Structure formats: C-alpha cells, structure tokens
Amino acid sequence: MALRVITVGVHDMDAAITFYTKLLGFDVRDASMAPHFVELESEGPTLLLAQCEQPAVSTYPAGATIALDVDTDDAAAALERFRAAGADLVHDTLQDSPVGPYFGVRDPSGNVIEMVQFD
User: In DSSP terms, which residues pair with 85 in a beta bridge?
Assistant: First the structure.
C-alpha cells in the first residue's frame, strides 16, 4: 500500500488557493480542472483541493480528525505569520509534542493543519 493522494474538501476554492499558497507556501501544480479540483505542488503525496458544498465541522483537538502536518523550520515565526494574517488559529501558543513544537490552524473551510517544527 502507498498513500498517493490527499484530497482536501474546500467549499470556497479561491479562498483555499490563497490560504494554501500564500500562508502555507504551496504552489499550484495544475488548475486545469478548476474549480472542481486544483492540484498543489508537494514533496510527498499529491495534495488535491476538491470543491465541496459545505465547510468542515471539527472539534479538534478534542474530537477525532485527520490533520495535515506541514513541516516548518520555525514554528514560532509561522505562528506569528498566521496570527498577523488573521488565520483561524486553534492554538494561540506553541504546543509541545514528542516530535517538536506545533500549532493548529484551520483553513477557510475548517480543515485542520498542524504546523510542526520536527526535531
């Protein structure tokens, strides 16, 4: 088995593209199927934004969810950048974990992203 594609449902494709490119730093690889699908550049599995009708409703971190963990060299600087952009922060401060400091943020559709400074 191999994980090849991660599909992220988004209810506002334009806002999602802005979030994933401007705040997270991904580039658009293929927008030929927009607004239904937009593929982002990723060193790992293909990251695919897929148009859906409604935003996600997540109770993260209390409830079960799938979170996208994105590597960052400086979690503190990333947190300040997201804060300055008015992003929907799950954590106001860095959180400790066995793999390194992190914080959670929601994309414009409510999907959870964890920005992790892996040790």
Answer: none
